[in-house]
């Protein structure tokens, strides 16, 4: 801090005393006026912040509640009164953190409900409120009932694909009673004291109390009650007052001793406070922090306030950037989904409405098949990313034969990826192969490598793509490498390559397409397995990805290479009778067409109960293809009834779910095997062949 030079003077004693007294009086008046001004300024500033904070919290609560209410299965519930959904929704009213759950039809009559002891009335939502909800789509309003003041959330039940002009099929209502526990919970969230007043008369705010009032209104926008949020602020003001009065005391004392230190001890800190309050000047805050006494506390407070403001600005910028990225992602998602759908619908219409040669039909069917697989890949990526973000994806560690794993991946990609057949696609031989199986998650490890290799093949027009691994026992890790001679990645974009809502690469990326989630999923999986992922790239020369996972041997097992099962069922063999439990006519027709040419006798069950009855009454059933989700009785319930009577009967689950958790549940239930939808013909007959052989043996 710059040293202040003060001119020395030696006035007569009387003039000195008079001058000091006059100066003291002026100083006292000035500081008191200043204290009064900054009290109001600080209080007004923080009161505005307090009001903004309460507004954001209440709006966030409304958005979260409405989001939890938007369920795609409610539209089916209105039609089927599905018992499973009924049990899920009404068994526990705390599912939606509410005291009342109700479903209404378009006739404005209640279909079903559940309520806690806090709300005794059943049908308390007026018809006019439901009509208003039909227009708005979603709303929050308040009602005064015999149970007290009730907070009501409502949304229309609509079809999930009806987003442009949603038409109401019914209404979904949640309600909470505004009682003492409710108020205490909100008080804890908002860090304030809440008072609910039944009239509109304004209540004056007390000194040093932050106050914000909110009127609770019903569906007609008429007054129901008024809520006051209040937060004490006297401690902060008291600290400032204490500091300033301390300054005043010191100034008077110092004036009596000498004018020499006035500038140093009083004027400079006060000027620093002024600049900090008016402009947030960092140098002023540092001056206060370097001053002894309560000025240092004030400087610390100003510094914390400045940091909070800086964090808010950064958070705002980050939120705005995130919104832009999400908008771009959604636009890209719409384009990527519509592209294969357009091909599927367009070429299907051509097949149905035009006379075509067999060669053209095969060409169109090939386009439809490729587009369908692209669409499935997009949906799989979206589902997997959703599981990663919601922390539902967890590693499933097993003993993995690393050499077999890598070679199987190479053979699979070499056969299935046309790009791999056009360029120099190589497997890097490991200098030191793993002598024992590795403890890791084989599915996620393969997915990381597949994503990186597929990405490399996409962006390599000529040259080579190669991948492999090396054991680094010195550092107790495994290093995987995927290298290509493709377009490369600009240095400025490399920091964004693993971001979930970004796509980098310019025109190349636009031409190739895709959601760009593969690398984000790979990074998430690598970190889930306890590793890291990095890259090196030069524009126009190619890219090299590295990812590292911990090395942990499973020495109790020996390395064995397992052969791939071959499909041995051929046309003309006498195989047996298969029961297909499938409620959807189109899916059943698909099974019929897939098995056309095989000597299977096909029997159909349209629900789980029929499947049980047919298995009980027909001992000649050799195998069951059991759909998991069926009316009357689902696949799990049907299995529980069939297994005790026909313990050796192979029962194959067919399901649209494919996560590790779903697979574990299927096998724990006792199914022989499973196949996921959409059905893969080769996989279907491989499972049937293996199951029938096992049954015979």
Automatic annotation (TrEMBL):
Q: What class of enzyme is it?
A: transferase
Coiled-coil residue spans: none
- The transmembrane residues are 13-35, 236-261
Q: Which keywords does this Swiss-Prot/TrEMBL entry list?
A: ATP-binding, Cell membrane, Kinase, Membrane, Nucleotide-binding, Phosphoprotein, Transferase, Transmembrane, Transmembrane helix, Two-component regulatory system
Q: Name one GO molecular function term.
A: ATP binding
Secretion signal: which residues?
none
Q: Where is the Histidine kinase domain?
A: 332-553
Single GO cellular component term = plasma membrane
Reaction(s) catalysed (UniProt annotation): ATP + protein L-histidine = ADP + protein N-phospho-L-histidine
Cellular localisation: Cell membrane
Q: Name one Pfam family in it.
A: HisKA
Q: Which PROSITE patterns does the record associate with it?
A: HIS_KIN, RESPONSE_REGULATORY
Q: Which residues carry this modification: 4-aspartylphosphate?
A: 627
Assigned EC number? 2.7.13.3
| Domain Response regulatory, chain residue ranges per copy | 577-692
Q: Which SUPFAM superfamilies match?
A: ATPase domain of HSP90 chaperone/DNA topoisomerase II/histidine kinase, CheY-like, Homodimeric domain of signal transducing histidine kinase
Q: What is this protein called?
A: histidine kinase
Organism encoding this protein: Flavobacterium aquariorum
């Amino acid at each position: 801090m710059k040293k202040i030079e003060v001119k020395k003077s030696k006035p007569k004693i009387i003039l000195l005393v008079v001058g000091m007294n006059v100066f003291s009086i002026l100083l006292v008046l000035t500081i008191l006026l200043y204290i009064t001004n900054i009290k109001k300024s600080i209080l007004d500033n923080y009161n505005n912040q307090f009001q903004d904070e309460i507004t954001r919290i209440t709006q966030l609560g409304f958005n979260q509640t409405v989001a939890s209410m938007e369920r795609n299965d409610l539209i089916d519930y209105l039609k089927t009164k599905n018992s499973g959904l009924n049990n899920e929704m009404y068994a526990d009213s705390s599912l939606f953190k509410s005291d009342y759950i109700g479903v209404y039809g378009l006739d404005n009559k209640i279909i079903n409900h559940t309520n806690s002891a806090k709300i005794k009335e059943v049908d308390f939502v007026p018809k006019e409120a439901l009509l208003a909800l039909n227009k708005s789509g979603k709303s929050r309003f308040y009602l005064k009932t015999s149970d007290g003041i009730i907070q009501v959330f409502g949304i229309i039940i609509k079809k999930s694909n009806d987003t442009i002009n949603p038409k109401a099929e019914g209404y979904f209502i949640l309600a909470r009673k505004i009682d003492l526990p409710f108020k205490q919970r909100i008080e804890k969230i908002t860090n304030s004291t809440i008072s609910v007043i039944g009239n509109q008369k304004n209540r004056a705010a007390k000194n040093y109390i932050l106050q914000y009032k909110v009127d609770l209104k019903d569906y007609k926008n008429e007054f129901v009650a008024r809520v006051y949020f209040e937060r004490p602020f006297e401690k902060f003001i008291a600290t400032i007052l204490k500091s300033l009065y301390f300054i005043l005391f010191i100034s008077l004392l110092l004036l009596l001793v000498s004018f020499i230190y006035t500038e140093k001890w009083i004027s400079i800190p006060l000027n620093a406070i002024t600049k900090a309050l008016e402009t947030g000047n960092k140098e002023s805050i540092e001056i206060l922090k370097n001053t002894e006494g309560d000025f240092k506390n004030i400087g610390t407070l100003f510094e914390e306030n400045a940091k909070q403001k800086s964090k808010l600005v950064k958070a705002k910028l980050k939120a705005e950037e995130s919104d832009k990225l999400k908008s771009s992602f959604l636009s890209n998602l719409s384009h990527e989904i519509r592209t294969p759908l357009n091909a599927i619908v367009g070429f299907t219409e051509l097949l149905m409405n035009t006379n075509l040669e067999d060669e053209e039909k095969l060409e169109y069917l090939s386009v439809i098949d490729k587009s369908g697989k692209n669409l499935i890949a997009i949906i799989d990526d979206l589902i997997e990313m959703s599981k990663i973000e919601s922390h539902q994806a967890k590693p499933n560690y097993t003993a993995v034969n690393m050499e077999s794993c890598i070679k199987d991946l190479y053979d699979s990609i070499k056969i299935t990826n046309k790009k791999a057949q056009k360029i120099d696609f190589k497997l890097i031989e490991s200098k030191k192969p793993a002598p024992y199986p590795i403890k890791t998650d084989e599915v996620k490890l393969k997915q990381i490598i597949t994503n990186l290799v597929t990405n490399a093949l996409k962006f390599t027009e000529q040259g080579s793509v190669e991948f492999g691994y090396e054991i680094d026992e010195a550092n107790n890790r495994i290093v995987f490498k995927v290298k290509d001679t493709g377009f490369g990645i600009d240095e400025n974009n490399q920091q964004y390559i693993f971001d979930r809502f970004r796509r980098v690469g310019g025109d190349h990326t636009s031409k190739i397409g895709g959601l760009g989630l593969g690398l984000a999923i790979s990074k998430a999986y690598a970190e889930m397995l306890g590793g890291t992922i990095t890259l090196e790239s030069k524009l126009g020369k190619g890219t090299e990805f590295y990812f590292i996972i911990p090395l942990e041997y499973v020495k109790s097992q020996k390395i064995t290479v397992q052969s791939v099962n071959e499909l041995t069922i051929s046309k003309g063999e006498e195989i047996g009778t298969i029961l297909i439990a499938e409620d959807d006519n189109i899916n059943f027709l698909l099974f019929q067409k897939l098995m056309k040419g095989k000597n299977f006798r096909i029997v159909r069950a349209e629900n789980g109960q029929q499947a049980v009855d047919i298995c009980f009454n027909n001992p000649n059933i050799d195998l069951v293809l059991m759909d998991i989700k069926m009316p009357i009785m689902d696949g799990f319930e049907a299995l529980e009834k069939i297994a005790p009577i026909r313990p050796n009967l192979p029962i194959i689950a067919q399901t649209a779910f494919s996560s590790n958790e779903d697979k574990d549940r299927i096998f724990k239930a006792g199914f022989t095997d499973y196949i996921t939808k959409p059905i893969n013909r080769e996989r279907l007959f491989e499972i049937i062949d293996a199951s029938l052989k096992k049954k015979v043996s």
